[in-house]
Amino acid sequence: MIFSNIEGRLREIRTFTRPTADGRGTITFRVFVIEMPFSRDTPIDAGKLLAVETIRKEYYLLLEVTDYFPQHYGMVNLDGSVPPELREEIMKRVEEKWESKESWIEVYASSVGYVMRVNGGVEFKRGYIPPLPGSKVKLFTDETFEKFVFYENGVKIGKVVNENIDLKLNIEKAIKYHIGVFAYTGSGKSNLTSMLIRKSLEKMKDLKVIVIDVSMEYGILLLDQLLTYESRLVTLDRLPDNQIDAGRRLLRTHVIPEELNEDRDLIRKAFETLYNQGKLRKLYIPPQGISFLTYGMLIDMVRSQTEDKYVATAQKPFFMMLLHELDRLMRENKLSKDDVVDEAVLHSLDEVEMKAREAGIKENATIFSFISAIKQYIELKPIESEEYDVENLAIELLDQDPASPRLFIVETPNMDDARLVISLLIDQVFMRRKRSYSSIPVVLFVLDEAQEFIPFESRQKDYSEYSSIAVEKLLRHGRKYHLHALISTQRLAYLNTNVLQQIHTYFVSTLPRPYDRQLISETFGISDSLVDRTLNFDIGQWLLISFKAALKEDIPIMFYADNNISELKENLLKILK
């Protein structure tokens, strides 16, 4: 059966227009008003899928319920102009006759951008065909809903609201096209993110995950995964000297969820085991910050010399010539501005230097000093050290050995350090993946409090400019190098908008600010009223919106996420028994 036995009628189609979230234009939505038979046991609820006949035979337009409320004929024109005694009498009669044929359920729905053809079989495809007002509106059965929306062999992450159906998504595809988790404080962002990480590690055997943890909570939320897999808990603090100190210090420095307050001894024991397994590392951050020169940086240096009023006019053509040589070198070797400058540039430097000497430029000229400085930089040998630094972290992250670490949690409560680490790490990983391309391992970068890494307005002095550029590069170009991102934040308004455009799967819970909700509505072209339902969500309840990624079809789904804490406790008891 495709449809249930509950049917309604399409009464009218309304349109309304509002300004876009940025105030630069307008956006128009259609609202479909449907009358359904009144019943106190009605299965109609927000998120249900409906189908209405269209002007084309055998084709149905698919709608999603955004809101509904009971209506009674006697209340339609009842307002303050009616005398109080008469109003009271009318309302008494209405109360007694809700089960009569004078009442109905008024349903508001929006198009999900799909039509369905029923001709022996069932076929779904994207599009819009105008529906027939007055025609029957039919409710999907649970089986049709599940078949239409979910992957049969998908990963279960929760239960669909108002449906007895497991939410199954294609976790590989969701990661490939990047994931965003957006909700206000206390909505369960960390629980959902941790659960997605553990499901991903279980499903994708060639996946590695690195979490940049500024809130000091993922070391607890993924503690069982740190113990189960070869992993690294990376900190900027001095490492403890023994397992007892490790257990006490890590227990003291981490945020412990309320549900685990009575399990502190279990957590301390787990941290001691983690120390004994040799999975703790102290991260060394070089004081010079950005530790290598890219072609983009070199080009900016050369260009600044051509614009410097103190550089002699006779030398500027040679700096222009150097720009030309760099352009030729990058074209021939298919290099980008993000590639690191190495010995390949020496020939170009020699060519410009020789031509400058032939032209009679003085020996102490800026052009010769500049070229000499670049050559000396290239000749610098890497410092050999036993310190675990960003380079070692990148090497382990890209290690193809199945026995290499799969989960990395980098704890950096200082935001300046966190931004510097993520910018250095992304650059290192890109550089190494470009030099030695491989489809494995797939790497997922997880950024909690993403507004700190990719702010709308960035600055150099706190490294936010570096981290914003690096994360934007990760989301723009990471897919072809099998590098992906999951970002989590409370406010979309504070994010770099270029980054938001690269994310195809959104998990949305309560967002009090209208701008944030409107931005999501506009991004996916879904009704404001559907996104506004998130204001009434309970902790752990989410709206999943995906564009050609996590779900079979791009239908907004409301669901309850599985509890990460329950699985964590169960696994810790098994591991440490």
Automatic annotation (TrEMBL):
Pfam families: DUF87 (PF01935). It comes from the Archaea. It catalyses: ATP + H2O = ADP + phosphate + H(+); Couples ATP hydrolysis with the unwinding of duplex DNA by translocating in the 3'-5' direction. Residues 155-399 form the Helicase HerA central domain. InterPro entries: HerA-like, HerA_central, P-loop_NTPase. Coiled coil: none annotated. GO terms for molecular function: 3'-5' DNA helicase activity; 5'-3' DNA helicase activity. PANTHER family: HELICASE HERA CENTRAL DOMAIN-CONTAINING PROTEIN (PTHR42957:SF2), HELICASE MJ1565-RELATED (PTHR42957). Belongs to the HerA family. This is DUF87 domain-containing protein. It comes from Stygiolobus azoricus.
